[in-house]
Amino acid sequence: MANISKRDRTREEQSRIAAKNRRELIAEGFSRRDLLKMGLLTSAGMLIPKMGLSARPLTSAGFVNNTPQSRPTRSFIEDMPRLTIKQPVAALSPAPTAAPNTAAGESRTIAHQAFAQFPPQKFYETHERAFQASASPDLAPSTLWGFDGLFPGPLFVAQYGEPILNRIYNDLPTQNNGFGINSTTTHLHNGHTPSESDGFPCFFNEAGKFYDHHYPNVLAGINSTHPGTGDIRESMHTLWYHDHRIDFTSQNVYKGLAGMYNLFHPPNSAYDTGNETTGFRLPSFPDYDINMVFNDAVYDSVTDQLAFDLFNLDGILGDKMQVNGKIQPVLHVSPRRYRFRWLNMGPSRFYQMFLTDPTNLSSKAFWQLSTDGNFLRKPVQVTSCRISVAERMDVIVDFTGLQGKTFYIENRLEQIDGRGPTGTVLNAGQGNYMLKIVVDGPVVADNSIDPATIPANQAVYFYDFPDTLTAPVVTRTFKFERNNGQWAVNGKFADCADNRFTVKRNTVEKWIFQNNSGGWQHPVHMHFEEFQTLKINGQPPATSGIIQAGRKDVLRLEHNMQAELYFRFRDFTGRYPIHCHNVVHEDHAMMVLLNINDVGDTNPNP
Amino acid sequence: MKNISRRSVLALLGVAPVAGAVAARAATPGSSRQDDYPPVQNVSSRERIRQLHFPNVRLTNQEGKKVLFYDDLIKDKIVLINFMYSKCEGICPGITTNLVRVQRLLGDRVGRDVFMYSFSLKPREDTPESMAAYAKMHKVGPGWQFLTGDPADLELLRRKLGYTNPDPAQDADVTQHIGNIRYGNEPLERWGACPGMANASFIVESIGWLYPKTGTEIGKGERK
């Protein structure tokens, strides 16, 4: 090794300094575990030096290569914003048509297949545009991209039986301030939506144009197994919408193109009415039914601008925890029951949420209502719930009799890089405090159901799960792999021109997902239909602990896991994707594109 | 370094705390702790990307010509990047063959407005001659440079461009190297990546997205 360059020597020197610093820190009482938690150690145990580059930048915490992370910000100084409710317009001009209005500048190329059957009753006009916002008074404003210039985007309040049309204008600039592309496609996650309105990753809405999305807001089965009504057991409640543009999804979503969508049943129904005196009697919307979008972000330490690591393949962890666009805000509540709708917007972090009482570090129990926005049979009492990217969680928290108390929503799932959590659930108070909840609101009436009063032997309070008795017409296996850093499914990569396989409309399929990618975990999402999990690693899913039974649309595919899933594909046709929702993986091709038509195929290894 | 406080440790290392919980316990109401940090600077995002990811290291291409990474290869250009080594018996031959297909589909754009670069993962072994021989063996056309140089510089580049494995053991094993292609439009700050073995025609389509706004000079029409 003759002729070692000057730079080599500098790096070796820095490495020696780093090792010396580390020894001294440990001597002062910072354990290796402390340093790891603080993000100062790589998982190989090397101290991240201030200037040097010889330690491997192993943690994907924000930036690689030892770039300093976001500036310090004060916690719990701003109120948590409530999402702005999206208002319909009287009419759209030009009026929407089933056929794409290419002459008027519509990007859509495929006609609305269900437009005549479910004519829209409400119309919405949405503009994707750039704007300035600050997540904290301690940070200078950043340029974000958001629906209607908001982050999170406006909250859609929709109703079963009331089809809507959302016209989305792409008013985004070419100048992207470091990341993002002004070519988009908006996906309503969870929606039982015809393909041409579903936000297929290759159906672009280009800058300067618009794209009409038709949301029938119908229950699955409406044109098949349960004609005219759909199957009530396929109800969905908490959805979200976000950009889904192939290869740039993580950049565009991280930049702010995401929002939520609450789907209620009609006010006179026996179900989720949004009025706590009727139906399921869940806490009334909007006062006591609150949406919370969680995301973790990094802000460039030099410019304070929202920063995205463009050169990361594994997953990105932010060091600022945000709720509804604000870093660690505060929510004031009255001493009564609340419904919270939690969304993990990503990009890559997995959460396990607890309600921590800081005075004694106990965990307050709460009620889990749903998995991925789909109700369980009845509320289940839990002390925590795990939420991977794109999963939603409806919970009821009962603050009755707790005036004067403070709680924190705390994420205690340890994660040190973008690959996935370590598996350790940290002790109370050692995790990330996301939101401070202060019970100092006025005492008010509470007419909502107290889940504790539902008899233990009552199996169903909401509705039962659909059966899994109909035999599948085909079983397909999907191996999620990492080949030299290339994310593959069954050894192949996504391509806009190809459909990997075809499903026959109104049939049942069984899908097996296998994680063969080593150290990475993948929240895998199939559009359009919810599945039920038949088996995880050969066993039926447990119904306690981390709930995996019930209808879901995101499967948490953990290390070396194999899951068997049961799908019904009903009512609509066209192209849909299956993909990993660690959006950084998704953008590096961890996706399968499929088609639904009236013929289908039986390829077991697409 | 006795009586070192956690805060001064962090200042020393220039790293802010990761977990919100740490901040929550440490923060005093009304205090900003901004005093430890220099004021916000008005540096463009394009410049920040350059500072963080594009060191201007000197490299040598397969013709023996010396170039600077940022100034000569990246600045103001649309680029296609991958990493390989000339004696690779794993994924490199397949990826290079695939990229040759891409080059043919791009035609005379390569070297004119799209620039292709392959960087060596074994700069101690790879000389301009060995890179030239590899390129010739694969029938690489003009406008595509194969680059080697000082081992420390190539290692720096590998890390800065994200061609790393978070597991140090795997990262040390060159046969496990990252097989992705990075594509980007440097002045437009548009960067993406795709698998090296993705369909060549889809890679060409992806490059089309790098052209600003309505410019899809390379598009579906080019697919074969």
Shape of chain A: globular
User: How many structural units, i.e. domains of chain B?
Assistant: 2
Strand content of chain B: 15-25%
Q: What is the structural class of chain A?
A: mainly beta
What percent of residues of chain A are in strands? Answer: 25-35%
Distance between the termini of chain B: 66 Å
Q: End-to-end span of chain A in angstroms?
A: 50 Å
Give the helix level of chain A as a range of percent. Answer: under 10%
CATH classification, class level of the largest domain in chain A = Mainly Beta
Q: Give the total of domains of chain A.
A: 4
CATH-derived architecture of the largest domain in chain A: Sandwich
Number of strands of chain B: 7
Fourth-tier CATH superfamily name of the largest domain in chain B: Glutaredoxin
SSE run of chain B: HHHEEHEHEHEHHEEH
CATH domain class of the largest domain in chain B: Alpha Beta
By DSSP (H or I, 4+ residues per run), the number of helices of chain A equals 4
What does the main sheet of chain A amount to? 8 strands, mixed
What does this protein structure show overall?
- The complex is a heterodimer of chains A (about 600) and B (about 220).
- Chain A has four helices and 35 strands.
- Chain A starts with 5 loop residues before the first helix and ends in a 9-residue tail after the last strand.
- Chain A has four domains: about 1-60, no CATH class; about 100-290, Sandwich (Immunoglobulin-like), CATH 2.60.40; about 290-455, Cupredoxins -  blue copper proteins (Immunoglobulin-like, Sandwich); about 475-595, Immunoglobulin-like.
- Chain A has helices spanning about 5-25, 30-35, 250-255, 585; strands at about 120-135, 140-145, 155-160, 165-170, 185, 185-190, 205, 210-215, 240-245, 260-265, 290-300, 305, 320-325, 325, 330, 335-345, 350-355, 360-365, 365-370, 375-380, 385, 390-400, 405-410, 430-440, 475-485, 485-490, 500-505, 505-515, 520-525, 530-535, 550, 555, 560-570, 575-580, 590-595.
- In chain A, about 5% of the residues lie in helices and about 35% in strands.
- The longest helix of chain B has 15 residues, at about 90-105.
- Chain B has two domains: about 5-35, no CATH class; about 45-220, Glutaredoxin, CATH 3.40.30.10.
- Chain B has helices spanning about 5-15, 20-25, 45-55, 70-75, 90-105, 130-135, 150-160, 170, 200-210, and strands at about 60, 65-70, 80-85, 115-120, 145-150, 180-185, 190-195.
- In chain B, strands 2-1-5-4-3-6-7 form a seven-stranded mixed sheet.
- Residues about 1-35 and about 215-224 of chain B have low confidence and may be disordered.
- Chain B is of the alpha/beta class.
- In chain B, helix 5 (about 90-105) crosses helix 9.
- The chains are: A mainly beta (about 600), B alpha/beta (about 220).
- Chains A and B meet through helix 1, strand 24 and strand 26 of A and helix 1, helix 2, helix 3, helix 7 and strand 7 of B.
